[in-house]
TrEMBL record:
It holds the Pfam family Alpha-amylase. It comes from Fusarium oligoseptatum. This is Glycosyl hydrolase family 13 catalytic domain-containing protein. Keywords: Maltose metabolism. The keyword NADP does not apply. It comes from the Eukaryota. Belongs to the glycosyl hydrolase 13 family. GO terms for molecular function: alpha-amylase activity; glucan 1,4-alpha-maltotriohydrolase activity; oligo-1,6-glucosidase activity; sucrose alpha-glucosidase activity.
């Protein structure tokens, strides 16, 4: 039933955020690496897609051990990308087009080359020693030195790194080159807040906060429970995620920095899935963050013990996640982020749709319908709007370059032996490796897909760029790009239905592993019916009470007459009879 109460509108709720991976977007100076001037040159294109904000993956100065998620100076720019002046020009260019700018804020850890860490490791008596986690070693019965606890690094091995100079370990939950900051140190927090203000004063409109809930850890750093008996090191997220002072830090950040600006925040929330814990960060009365990335939408096909274990995608999983968060956020007066792709995952088209030539276009459009009709703030990854896919099966391990995937491959090779069959590992990497979300943008049919004029790009271009690129789709009214523009136009025209609307799944198809059918209802009673076929077979969908409803989006019948036959991987949207929509896409 309609609520008759208009939604509480906020600019950040209505954004369409276009995530840019700077290294892979566009190279302007032929060095093989994308850069800020390249991004500036494509702002008109980004605007034409329908984006109203950009999120820049890390651009700050970094030795690039983890593609910028190891920051060595928060007030300088990674030199191959450009300069601080380039960022200022980018912000101006975006604001002239009504586009907001979000920066990636990586403050759970720094680079080991950051001046803070250099000073911290210089001496046990350094004033900045407590800005990081330093601990004495343990020793086993044989007198062999051991890490302070049994935590496993997120990227494999121990979460502790030995420092010869001061004869202590430092905590590094990701890579040894990424020492964790100690947020319990007030002086460190003040320095971090000053860096945030530096960019907000230059016009940045907010932050995506990386690994946000790892900033508070159990003060005693105790051993993790043994959940992997055969492993030397154990998952320690029970003690290093969402620690006892997490909400204190966010509220302090809010009061000391964020509340002084009209800005938005989206936090990356790992290792936390239950509704009440998630809602505690974004419920309006908590006054902490605007929204979160919980990660469950991108790890639907992860194995129980590891990302690269096999666990095939099932539509029932997507339905459960969609129902859960579309229902939970309104209940807790919070707000959703809507996304399927990011720089840490494989492409949703290849994982949850189909990148086979006969289905690829329709599957990409169907996923666009799904994303474009859900309530929340919508996020797209560069290339998603043209149906970019994962790396092809023909690629070998030598074509992959990301540290996370390579570390896993090496660990499996060490366990199995040099001549072992690694085809199962390669299958999972082809689906889930972070490289897939970072493949260079495919602009045209020129050398390197128009991404760079260099003889060799920093990362191999997907082999399919000659068939899947922006230039060709700009000339095709039936392209994935053209369809995304229709979806986003409709979403903006009908914000009350799609951005702010209420989600309800059709009970008849709740258990279907092929059809996802739901309605979106505005506060004043306007209803849109969304029908999605996630299979490679035709599906007949019976929709009682919808006779005469008119098509808003898609290529199916103009008017419902008792039911709809969906083609393989088809998505379609219909408007309720007698309900006035502003315009059809």
């Amino acid at each position: 039933m309609p609520t008759s109460t208009p939604p509480e509108r906020q600019w950040w709720k209505e954004l369409v955020v276009y995530q840019i991976y700077p290294a892979s977007f566009l190279d302007s100076d032929a060095d093989g690496l994308g850069d800020l001037p390249g991004i500036i040159s494509k702002l008109d294109y980004i605007q034409s897609v329908g984006a109203t904000a950009i999120w820049l993956s890390p651009i700050f100065k970094s030795p690039q051990h983890d593609m910028g998620y190891d920051v060595s100076d928060y007030r300088d720019i990674h030199h191959p990308y450009g300069t601080v002046e380039d960022v200022e020009a980018l912000i101006r260019g975006c604001h002239e087009r009504g586009i907001k700018v979000l920066l990636d804020l990586v403050v759970n850890h720094t680079s080991h080359e950051h001046e803070w860490f250099k000073e911290s490791r210089s001496s046990r008596t350094s004033p900045k020693r407590d800005w990081y986690f330093w601990r004495d070693p343990k020793f086993d019965s044989n007198g062999t030195r051991q890490p302070p606890n049994n935590w496993a690094s997120i990227f494999g091995g121990s979460a502790w790194t030995w420092d010869e100079q001061t004869s202590q370990y430092y905590l590094s939950l990701f890579l040894p080159e990424q020492p964790d900051l100690n947020w319990a140190n007030e002086e460190m927090r003040r320095a971090t807040y000053a860096d945030m203000k530096f960019w907000l004063d230059k016009g940045a409109d907010g932050f995506r906060i990386d690994s946000m809930n790892l900033m508070s850890k159990h003060p005693d750093l105790p051993d993790a429970p043994i959940t992997k008996p055969g492993s030397e090191f154990q998952p320690g997220d029970k003690y290093f995620a969402s620690g006892p002072r997490m909400h204190d830090y966010i509220r302090e950040m809010r009061e000391g920095v964020l509340d002084k600006y009209d800005c938005m925040t989206v936090g990356e929330l790992g290792f936390t899935k239950d509704e009440e814990s998630v809602a505690s960060y974004v419920a309006k009365d908590r006054h902490e963050l605007n929204m979160l990335f919980t990660g469950d939408i991108v790890d639907m096909d992860f194995g129980v013990n590891h990302k690269y274990e096999r666990d095939d995608f099932r539509l029932s999983k997507l339905k459960a996640i969609t129902n859960r968060w579309q229902g939970a956020m309104p209940k807790f007066n919070g707000w959703n982020s809507v996304y399927m792709d990011n720089h840490d995952s494989g492409r949703s088209l290849s994982r949850y749709g189909s990148d086979l030539p006969e289905y690829r276009k329709d599957a990409a459009k169907m996923l666009a319908v799904y994303l474009g009709t859900l309530s929340g703030t919508l996020f797209l990854l560069q290339g998603q709007e043209i149906g970019m896919a994962n790396a092809p099966e023909s690629w070998t391990i030598d074509d992959y370059i990301d540290v996370e995937g390579l570390n896993y491959y090496k660990s499996q090779l060490n366990k199995r032996g040099v001549d072992a069959d690694m085809s199962d590992v390669m299958r999972e990497m082809r689906l889930k490796a972070r490289d897939n979300g970072r493949l260079p943008m495919q602009w045209n049919t020129d050398k390197n897909g128009g991404f760079t004029q260099a003889s060799k790009p920093w990362m191999r271009i997907n082999d399919d760029f000659t068939d899947w690129n922006v230039a060709q789709q700009e000339k095709d009214d039936d392209s994935v790009l053209a369809f995304w523009r229709q979806v986003l136009k409709l979403r903006q025209q009908e914000k009350d239905v799609f951005v702010y609307g209420r989600f309800d799944e059709l009970p008849k198809y709740e258990r279907s592993e092929e059809v996802f059918a739901y309605t979106m209802t505005s506060y004043d009673g306007r209803v849109a019916l969304v029908l999605l076929n996630f299979s490679d077979k035709k599906q007949s969908v019976e929709v009682k009470g919808c006779t005469g409803w008119k098509k808003l989006l898609g290529k199916n019948v103009e008017t419902i007459e008792g039911g709809v036959e969906l083609r393989p991987y088809e998505g379609v949207v219909y408007a309720g009879l007698g309900l006035s929509f502003a315009a059809r896409a």
